[in-house]
Write the structure tokens for this entry.
Amino acid sequence: VFHALGILNSSEIYCIWHGSEILRFQNYFCWRILAKKFFQHARAIVGASYHVRVLVEKSFLKQLASKMVIAPCACSSAAMTYLNQNKTSNHDKLRILTLARIHPRKGQVDIAQALASLPPGLRHQIIYQVGGVGDANYLQHIKKICCESDVTFQYLGEVTSENLASIYEQCDIY
């Protein structure tokens, strides 16, 4: 549509997809028509993971899969630091960390429920740490599951790239 109107040409269109674009809009008829017209003119479509390519291949945009390049998300250079690979744990509990947007699609509740299903002796040996921002109600649900099952829960809030390496270094499992 934009190309036909002379607003854009194919050398100007580059797209970066994380997957939610396909999932969120695939059931809207008007968006499907506009997306097919618009994205066919894209020079390249960058997917954040191979999972995004699979979503595209299974969607109404499957003809665009050949234009996809996969470029996994990576840490910023500010977050890159040497971590001590031979560190010994300086705490008595196992720290399990999830850094992601607080959202049901990211699976934090699934992890909390899995931890809650462990025998009580193991649950007491775990700290579940969650970092990120997002859905406050979903965060409360995660906290509730942990609290009711006696899994220690720590919400780290938004983790900046300057603090990222030290947060990873403190955890045992990411």
About this structure: Confidence is low (pLDDT under 50) at residues 1-7.
